[in-house]
Every structure is written in C-alpha cells, then in structure tokens.
Design brief:
835 residues, alpha/beta, Archaeosine Trna-guanine Transglycosylase, Chain: A, domain 4, Methane Monooxygenase Hydroxylase, Chain G, domain 1, 5-stranded mixed barrel, 5-stranded parallel β-sheet, 27 helices
Length: 835
Amino acid sequence: MNKDVEMKDSNTVNPEDHGSGEEFSGKVPILPVRNMVAFPQMQVPFMISFKSAPMIESVMEADRFVGLLTVKDPEVEDPVPGQLYEIGTMARVLHVKKNEEGVMMALMSGLHRFKVDTWHPDGPHLTASVNYAPETLETGLEMEALQRQLVDMVKSVLKMTAKASKEVIESIDQIKNPLQLAYVTALNVDIPMEKRQAILEMDSVSEKMRELLLHLSQEKEVLDIGRRIQSEVKEKMNKSQRDFVLRQQLKAIKEELGESDENEKPGSEADEYAQRLNASKMPDEAREEATRELERMQNMPPQSAEYPMIKTYLDWLIDLPWQTLSEESGDIAAARRILDEDHYGLEDVKSRLIEYMAVRHLVQGRQPDSTEQDDNSATGVILCLAGPPGVGKTSLGRSVARALGREFTRMSLGGVRDEAEIRGHRRTYIGAMPGRIIQAVKRAGTRNPVFMLDEIDKVGMDWRGDPSSALLEVLDPAQNNSFRDHYLDVDFDLSEVIFIATANQLDTIPGPLRDRMEIINLDGYTALEKLQIAKRHLVPRQLAAHRLKDEEVTFMQDALLKIIHDYTREAGVRNLERHIAAICRKGIVQLTENGWSHVVVTEKMVRDYLKKERFEAEQTEAITLPGIATGLAVTAVGGDILYIEATRMPGKGRLSLTGQLGDVMKESVEIAFSYVRSKAVPLGIDPQAFENTDVHVHVPAGALPKDGPSAGVAMVMALVSLFRGEPVRSDVGITGEITLRGRVLPVGGIKMKALAAHRAGLKKIVLPKRNQKDLDELPEEVVKDVEIVMVDQIDEAIAAAFTGQAVVDETIETEMDGLSPSHNEDCDVDLVTVV
C-alpha cells in the first residue's frame, strides 16, 4: 500500500484492463468528490484528504471498490447524505502513494454507474447500499450519425481552445464505444459541474450525446465570436501602429524640407476629442455644450491662450461619471456585520444607519404606486453625525460605503470661506476649476458614491460669499438632481449621492442648513467601551502600523486601563491611540537595542514609558472649602466638569463675575444670587450678611468662553455653601437651570455630562427631574457606578449636594466684625464682565 507506483497519463480505460466490465452492487464505502464528476470507463487521479485517508487504506486491504459521489456544494467540509448526489460512479482503486509532504494520491478506475439505495450512517465514514444502474445503449444509423458528429465537434472545439494535447485529440478517433466517447467528451471539454452530473444521470446514451452536441455547438459559436473580435482588435491595433509610423515619417520629411505646420489646423487632437465625446454617455445638455466648445477648438490655433482652457473644460466634461453607477449591495445582514466589525458600541447610531440602508434598498427595489407621487423623501435623508472628536464619525462613513458596496469620497469643510469652493469658478477666470463637489465625484469615479462632508460646523463666510448657502442646494434632495457648477455650467445629477455630514457642535451650523439634515448624536465612550475599542481595534492597528507581531508586543488589560484613566480624559479615543503608538515605539527600542524577545506592557511599564500621569484617577481635587461646587458642562470635545467658585469680602453687597462668561451665564449667576438672598432665612443664612459683603463668582479656565443656563443650580450651591460655611460634597456633579421661584428646569447634553462625571470619578449627579427621559440613553456602567438624583426644586438639590458639616471661615468673620459702615465705603467693587 505504501509502495510508490507510476501513474498513467491517459484518462481513458482499456476495456481489457482492471476488470472494467465488473458490475458491483451492495454495501460500499462512499468517497465525496468536490469540483468534478467521476465517469465510468475513465482513469482519474485523486488527492485524498486526511479525513478520507483511513477509508482508502481500509479499501486497499479489502476489495478496493469505492463509490464516488459528487458534493452538491463544494464549500461543505463534511458532507452528509443529503448534500451528495444520489447517482455516481463505482470505481476501483488501482494505486496509492504518498508524496514528500504526506499527502495521499490515489489512481482510480471508473467501472459503471450506480444509484444509492440506502445510507448507513453508523461507521467511521460514509457507507451506502447501492444498485447497479446501467445506461441504455441504442444502435442503428442515428446512433452512428450522432457518434460521427460528436467526434467532429469535440475535435473542432478542442483545437480552438488549445487546452488538450495533440495526442488526446487524435485518440478520440480511436474510440468506438459511444458511451465511452460521451464520457471522454464530458471530461475533456469545459462544462459546468452541474451539467456534467446531469449527463452522468441520463440513462440514454443518445440523449447524452445530444446534450453534449448542444453544448459544444454553443461553445463553438462563442469561440468563433471571440476569434472574430480578437482579429478585429488586432487589425485596428496594426492600423493604428502603421498610421503612427507614417505620421512620424511625414513629420521627419517636413522637418528635412524646412516646412512648418504653424498655419495648419490641429485636426488630429480635435479628432481625438471628437471620438472621446462620441464614446461618452453624457446627457444632451452637456453634449451640446461640449460640441460647441469642440467646434471652437477646431477653428483656433494651438498657440491661442484659450486653446488649453477649452481642452481642460472638455476633459472635465468627458471624464465625469455621468452614467457610471456602483452596484449597491442590499444585504442588510452583511451591512450590520461590517458595522459591528469596524465599530464597537454606538448601538443607536448603527441601528439608525441600518434603517437608512434598509429603506434605500426597499424603496429603490419597488416602483411607486400609480396614485402616489414619486419623490425621494425616504431615501434622500441627509445624515449628520454630531459628536466630539475621536468618536468615529468619519470612519462610520467609510463603513457605510463598504457595507453598501459604494465608492467613498471625502471633502473637508473646515476653514472653507469661499463659495467658489463649493460651486466652482466661472471659466472667465484664469485657472478656473470646478468646485470641490464635482472634483470629489470625479475622483470617486461613480455618480452614486458615499460623500462625507467633514467638519460642516467649521464652514465660515466672508466677502467671498457664504459656502453654507451653496451647500443648501447640494443637500436638498428636491434640488440636487440638477446641481449646476459654475465651471461646468451644465446640470449634474447628485440625487444618487449619499451625503453624510460630520460636526463637533451644532450651534455654529446655520439654521436652514441644519434643517436639511437629520442629526445623529455620538456622545462619547465609557471607560469599558474604550477598553474594548483599544483591544479590538487600536492595539492591532498600531501593531500593524509599526510592523510588530503579536508575540513581540503584548498589552495587558491593566495597562490599557491605566492609559484610559490616568493619561486621557476625552470623549473619543484619539489620544488613547496616540499613547498606544508611543508605547509601541518604546517597545521597538527594547526589541532592537536591548535585545528583548517579547515586550509585555504592564501598568508599571506604562508609568515608565509615559512618565507622570496627566490626570488623577478620581476627581481633580477634593472640595474642602465652602463656596465651591462641581458643575457639568458640554464643550466642543464632549462633556466636562466645571468648577464654580465663589468668595466673599467686606463690601456693600456688590456682585463680581469673571471667567469669560457669556450673557446667559451671567444672568444665571444673578438669578442664583437673587434667589439665595430672597431665601436667606429658610436656607439658614443671616440676611444681614449680604449688606456688608461683596461676592465674587469665578469659573476657572478663564481663557475659554463659557455660556448657557445649565450651571444655574451649581451656582446656587456655591453661594449657599459660601454663606452657610458648609462645603459641597466633592463627589457630586450638578446641572440644571434655575428660576427665581427655585424651580429646576431641564437642560441638554445629559448623556455627555453623565459620561464626563463618570470619567471624573463622581459618585452622584444631580439632574433636573424633567430630564428623566434622557436617562434611557445612559450606558449601563454609568447607571451602575453613579447615583442619579432627580430634583424639581432647589431644596431637593441642596439636600443631595451638602455634607451637613459647617465650616466657618474665621478670617472673613473676624474682618466682618471689625468693620464699620464707613470702612465699607472704601471697599466698593464694580461689576466685572468679560466678553
């Protein structure tokens, strides 16, 4: 069995060899065959898989008979009886050998057809009871005619394809058995596997031959057409080469004679543009404009200053994808899988994108009812992904393009102040070009790409126009089917483009432009989400970028958590990836300079590589003095904590404000101060304290402008703390708008504020009761780690925010007792407002 044997090159069986006439029925082992069909009276070599090797070895020790059945689906690894055809070929194993790699090769001789009667599932391999299924061999003049015609046809096709050797073609004339001729033909010509199996299952030999003749006649016709096309192409290429040589010779002769082409018209270049124009599929309006410009080009010398401008214009018109569309994938399950592969978390965002893609696929696949107006209100939605930097807005757009099977193109709008950037310059200007919308569509190469409008909130305006107004037409599904660029001056259809915008904040987007978009908020990630993102995406990406292998640098989970808590304080993961890249670079130094074989990044190693921590693991500072409260705010980079500081000094009841506060925030301070003064007695404050005291309220980070009403409750807490001498709890974050009646009104950005409080280590947050509906958006780990107190009145907020331990500022009390009203006049402090 292990002895190496020489295999025959022929794929036909001599009727006198190997008992080809044997007729076997009974219980036999079954060998599944992939990507081919085994025929009787054929010798075929097989590569035996490791799973089937024991069966072949047992067959060699027995009678060497094995049943060959074709697998219906070649991708199936371990086929079961229902996944195999029921009619196959009984074969006898002639020789078996193993190559140097241990792969078993077996040469088998096909004997006759069989049909499965009963499967026997018990046993180490497939076994079935089979019945002999002989073919019906007709005789007579018709069979002889079929045989001759089949021989001529198969020889003709094999010669045209040049896939068979000369010996094989000549051997076909020697085949006298019609059944053997049919099987040799089916094995040697290019036939799909399903049709080969159908030929095997046909009982009548004449029917087999007729089916083969039909297939071969079609194959011959296709080959004839291919040869004719190839001949035409070759003839055109030869003519073009001959014309080129003649032109070069004519040019050389004219140069030798001293003749000049200055007065000749540039017909060859214009002819080339005429051919390109005829081959393009542009609409009638664009074709008329291009034809008019081409006629001007033909009537002017190439030295003219306008000649290259016309060439550039024609190039743009001809090269634009007027009718080129990417074939859109409608597999929503695959789209969901792609989004989950590319992004961890963001379930609400991914769900909305899946809905968007599903609606597009359904609407485009169905014609509107005759009584309904055909509009694109369902598919023409413009999505705007709004959120802090680094949360994956741009990469979501790329994932949508990949999920839909469309091309992706991107345009950054940050700092764009010229309307011509969107609509293009008119051709009367020197160096005029189309706008960036048309340029991006041409770059994509299709008329229906996924178009990412990045940083749409950074669009500005000046004396050159307002780009945001130009975007109104681009992003309006009712208008952008006839977008007119100033340079092209013809309509271009943008209705098939999927526009996705991104923004960090929505306040700077003009109202009409924002009204055209559906806002999808991305509020940031929790620490656990960042950990999973780092493990699944950031670390593998940085290892690949630095050409590192997994067995060379390994990041432990505690190391990633230390980077998240102590070195980054952000809504996204951009800084987290930068720190991971920095550690990869440090690891490369250890591998190359110090000869390490494996760098395991631990929590201690992070401290050694990244030096001192940038943030404390918990709060930035513990509040031990009265007059300080922790507010929650929303910034352009996500949520953040905001300290409200208040102090008092001898004076005449004046209020000072600093910290670059906006008008709304200044009013919040004044409302809070008035409320505390009006409720002094119920709050346990001496009313006389306001008469001889000046109050200064400051919000740190004075270089940053701050505005909004959501710090009103925190300002009340700071003032109450100041006058009662009782500090606010250090682990409490507060947000909410205050009224003069003491009501707490709802505010926005609850999710981002809650995430900021969780990142800062706060244990409790005080929220307006009317924001109860926003709690459904909070991640599970935030709800589990942070106590949420919903309040409707200031009294409820005070009960949740204070420690209950009074601390008296003895310095202030001493100074206040020693002052007389005459002294207070010298301490007058004016109201400070910083814009």
